[in-house]
Amino acid sequence: MSAGQKAKATAEQIAGKAVRKVAHALGKNTTAVKGAALEARGKARATKERAKDSFHR
Q1: Please, how many CA atoms are within 13 Å of residue 54, restricted to the half-sphere of its CB?
Q2: What pLDDT, in 10s, does the model give residues 4-23?
Q3: What angle, rounded to 10 degrees, do the helices at 3-26 and 29-56 form?
Q4: Percentage helix, strand, coil, to 5, in the chain?
Q5: What pLDDT sits at residue 50?
Q6: Averaged pLDDT score across all residues of the chain
Q7: 43: Cβ contacts below 8 Å, ≥ 6 apart
Q8: Long-range CB contacts (< 8 A, 24+ apart) of 46-55?
Q9: How far is residue 37's CA from residue 31's CA, in Å, rounded to a whole number?
């Protein structure tokens, strides 16, 4: 996994988790769902990059 893509995936996961937790604490369900989606996108990006690495070896 390239360092840039790995950092981007981690940043998406952290930002999504933060948004989700804050929105949930404030009772903003729509925003909490958007945060969960951002977190899931970061996890999917990390999984994709790991898969690409396994094919390139």
Answers
A1: 6
A2: 888 999 999 999 999 999 99
A3: 160
A4: 90, 0, 10
A5: 87
A6: 91
A7: 9, 13
A8: 46/1, 46/6, 46/9, 46/10, 46/13, 49/1, 49/2, 49/5, 49/6, 49/9, 50/1, 52/1, 53/1
A9: 10
